[in-house]
Design goal:
Helices cover 33% and strands 17% of the residues. It is α/β, with parallel strands linked by helices. The protein has one domain: 3-Layer(aba) Sandwich (Rossmann fold). The chain is globular. The two termini are 31 Å apart. The mean pLDDT is 96.
Length: 271
């Protein structure tokens, strides 16, 4: 199987691609000129905004893992261009040059409403206002309406392998108005690879699938886990299910996280 990975140099991609290579997969990565690439992969220089450059990237591939996305910016135009227009360009290239390929797209649990009455479920209506999740919803729709064999995997808070993501959390406490008792779903990089193995095998075909570990953890505990403190509170929470997702579907499809909790990750030294 030849797999094209976009976003291979990003936070998720640079940890997923080596695991795919270690598992014996033939990996091809789409990179901009001058970008370093992991060992053991075939790099194709190109850009999602340059359709001609995608021909060599997609030709002959068996599967595409589309990780490329933009979200850490206030430039909403760039977010929409990257996440929707870039995805549309890639879909068109795959339809033309590799129509039998399986197209697996990474999405986000941020698509779910902050005011949801239960953990976010794949069947929930999603109409986010923020540019990043709204652009991902639009990209999901485009993929679902394409003629491709597709799967969409929605990630919660991703951490591990020294990516620094957990360490950034204290900076966002006031900006996002987190209540210390809010429980947040999490997934370790190791289990993104676990999920992608199932997706590549066709287990998620034609589905949107949430993945998460087995124990959503309070913001208070997560902050404490990395050596910071958060002011405690016994006040009622306005949005008790915000950032908490339901992974029942993934479990019925055979997904079993190998890093079951953030505390296991701490014990194993893989935060």
């Amino acid at each position: 199987m030849t797999i094209l990975v976009t976003g291979a140099t990003g936070l998720i991609g640079e940890r997923l691609v080596p695991r795919l290579v270690e598992a014996g997969e033939d990996c091809r990565v789409l990179v901009r000129p001058g970008k370093n690439t992991p060992d053991g992969v075939h790099a194709v220089e190109g850009d999602l905004f340059d359709p001609a450059s995608l021909v060599d990237a997609v030709a002959g591939v068996s599967a595409v893992i589309h990780l490329a996305a933009v979200f850490r910016t206030q430039d909403t135009g760039l977010i929409w261009k990257s996440n929707l227009e870039g995805t549309l360009s890639l879909i068109a290239a795959v339809q033309t040059y590799a129509p039998a390929a399986r197209f697996v797209m990474a999405s986000t649990s941020n698509v779910y409403s902050k005011d949801g009455p239960q953990p976010g479920r794949e069947t929930d209506p999603v109409e986010p206002n923020e540019a990043y999740p709204a652009s991902k919803v639009a990209a999901e729709k485009a993929l679902r309406e394409s003629a491709l064999n597709w799967a969409i995997v929605r990630f919660p808070f991703v951490y591990g392998d020294g990516d620094g993501h957990l360490e950034m959390l204290p900076k966002h406490l006031s900006a996002f108005g987190f209540h210390p008792a809010n429980r947040m779903s999490t997934i370790h990089h190791r289990d993104i690879a676990t999920a992608m193995k199932l997706a590549l095998a066709g287990i998620f075909d034609g589905r949107i699938v949430n993945i998460t570990d087995e124990a959503p953890t309070t913001i208070y505990e997560l902050v404490k886990l990395i050596g910071h403190n958060m002011a405690p509170s016994s006040e009622p929470m306005r949005n008790p299910w915000h950032l908490h997702i339901d992974a029942s579907l993934a479990r019925t499809l055979g997904f079993r996280p190998t890093v079951r909790t953030v505390y296991q990750a701490q014990q194993e030294g893989i935060l």
